[in-house]
Design goal:
This protein has 683 residues and is mostly helical. The chain contains 36 helices and four strands. A two-stranded antiparallel sheet has the order 1-2. The chain has a two-stranded antiparallel sheet with strand order 3-4. This is Neurochondrin.
Length: 683
Amino acid sequence: ITKVVKAGEADAKTLRRIFDAVGFTFPNRLLASTEAPDGCPSHIFRALAVTLLACFCTDPDLAGHPQILNKIPIFNEIITSKADQNDCPVKSMIDDAYQCLGAIAATTQGRQQLVSQGGVSALCRAFLHQGHGCSQALGILSGILSTAMAKCWKKSMSDLLALLGTLSKEFCNTEDKKKFELCEILPHFLPPVPFLLKGAFRKECFQNLYTGLYRILNSKLSASQSEPALKLAGCLIASYGSDWILAESREVQGKFLALLINLACVEVRLCLEDLTPEEGEAKRDVVAACYSIVEFGMMVCAAEESSSLTEEQCTQLVRIMAEAFGAIIHYLKQQVGPDKVQDSFVFLSVRLLSAWLAEETASLKEAICDLLPFLIQYTKALFERELASGDVSSWTAELVLSDGPGGPPCPTDALRLLLPGLCHLTAEEGPRRILISEGAPALLLQYFTHQWDVLRSSQQTSDIADGVEMSLRTSCGIFLNFVVTEPDLIRKEEAFSSLLSLLMSSLPSLVHSRKQCILAANFVTLGLMLSRLLANTPVLLETTSSKKFFGAAVIFLSKAYQAKTDPKDEMMRLEVSDCYQEFWEEISELWFLGMQAFASCVPLLPWIPELVLESDWLKLIFALLDHASPMSVDMELVTAFQGVLIELAEHSQQCKKFILSNGGEEKANLYGMAALEQCLHGE
C-alpha cells in the first residue's frame, strides 16, 4: 500500500478509502510496540508506522488531523536522533518524518502545533547536526517563520540564533553558488529586533552578513546573482537600518551604503521602465526589497544629523533616487488600472512615493501633478473599502501588514501615507487646483471624521491612537492651507461647514487633555480660521455648540503664559506655562495664529465679548501684564495680546470699560501698544 501511494498511483479518493480501512489504530499500535521480531532492526515497527503516517499526510485534510498532530514529538525525536543515519532504513524513516513535518507545516493549525510542541527547535538542531535530510529542515522552517515569526523566536530563540550564526558564517566564507542560495534563505531567519542579542553574537553575525554582501555587490554580477543579494540587503535595511554595515571605517560604510542605494535605484528603473508588464511581474519581490533600500536612503539623505554619507554623496543619491521615483510614477500611471486597487505591490509603490512627496515635492513636480488624480482615486478606493468593513476597531496603525520576510503585504491605510505630501502640495497653486477638482476636500473630511471616530474608540491601543492622532494633526495642516489660500472655496464647499461643526463638537473634550495638547492646538486654530470665513453661515449661529467651542478656545489660548521670577536678576518675566512647555515648539505658531484668528472673529460674532468677560480671560491678561516687567515681554506676544484687546474694546463697551478700569491706557503705554492706546482714547 505504501509503495502504491508513494508512487503517486492513488488519487485522493482512493487514498481516503485506504485511510478509512487502516485508520490510526494500526500505526498507533506499531508506535507503541517496543520489541522487534528476531533478526529485525529495533526501529522496524516505528519505521513502518511513520511510513503509513507519511502516506496519510499526502492528504492535506489528514495532515491537520489531531492524531497526526499529536505525533509531532515523535517526528522531532526521529530527525534529531543520534542513531546511525547512514543506515538505509533509518534514512527512509527520517525522510518520512520530514514528509510528515512538511505536510503539517502546510496547515495553519499544524504550524501552531509545531511551534508549541518544539518543532522549530528540533528542525534547527537537525540542521545544525547536519544529519540525513537536514536541508529539508530549512525549507520547513522558512515556511513556519514566514507566518509565525514572533512566536517562533519567543519559543525557540536560542536554537534560531545558533542556526542564524551558522548560516551567516557560511554565507561569509562560501565563494561558490551556495552563497547566492544563502541570499535567498537568510531573509527568513533574520529575527525581529528585540530578539537579536547585543554584544559579541550580534557583532559577529552582522559582520558576516556585511562581509558576504560586500563581496557580492562589489563584483560583476548577472541578474540571477544580484537579485538575491539585493533582496537580502533589503531585508537587513528594513529590519536594522544601517546597523548591520560593520565596515572597517565610516568612509567605507558610506561608500557601501551609497553603492547599495545606487544599485537599488538602477534595479527599480530596470524593472519598472524597461521590462514588459509580464517580466516586471516576476521581479516584484526584488523591487519590493529595493524599495526598502531606497526609502532608507531617503531617510539618511534627509536627516539633519550627518550620517556615514557625505554631503556630496547625498546630493548624488537624491538625483539618482529622483530617477527611480520617475520610474515608479511611470509604472503607476501606465500600468495600474482599477483592477489593481487591492494589489499589494501597487500599495508598496504608493507607500514609497508618498514618503518621497513628504520630503521632496519640488522634484518631478510636473509628473507628480499628472499622477495626482490617480493617487486621490486610489486612496479613496482603499479607504471606502475599509469603511465598508464597518468595524472601526479593525483600523490598524500598520502601513503594511505582513507575517514575515517575503510574506504578502496587504494594502491598508494608503491615505494616511499621502497626508504629509498633500500638506506640501496644497500650499502650491497648481497641485491644489488639481486636488480640488478631484474632490480631495470632501474625501479628506470623510477621512478626518473616520479617524476622529477611531481615536475616540476605547478599544484602540496607544500605538494606534498615536498614529491616528498624527494623521488628524497632518489633516488639520492640509485644511489650514485651503483656508488660507482658498477663502471662496471655503464659503461654498459644504465639506468645510461640516468640518467646522465637527471641530466645534470635538474641541471641548480635548482642551483639558495634556496628552492631546498638540491636537487641541490644531483644532482651535483651524476652527477659528474657519469661523472667520463662515461667520454668516448657520453653523455659527449663537448656539450651545458654538459657544462651547469658543469657550474651549479661550481656555486653550489663555493657558499659554505665566509670570515667573527669573532667579538670575529677580525680574518677573512672562514665560510659557508649565503645561505647554513640553509642546511649545510644535504649538507656538498655532497659538499665535489662533490669537490672530480669535481677534478677527470678535467683530463678526457679537456674542464673543460677553463670553470673554464671563471666562475671566481679560483678568488673566491684565494680571500677567501687571506682574511682568515690560522689558522682558517679547514683542510678538505683545502684538498678539494687543490684537485681541483692540477688537474687544472696539466692539464691546463692557470690555472697553473693563480694560480702562484695569489700567489699560497705562499698560498700553508701558508695553508699546500704540494702536490699543489710540483705540482707548477714541470715543
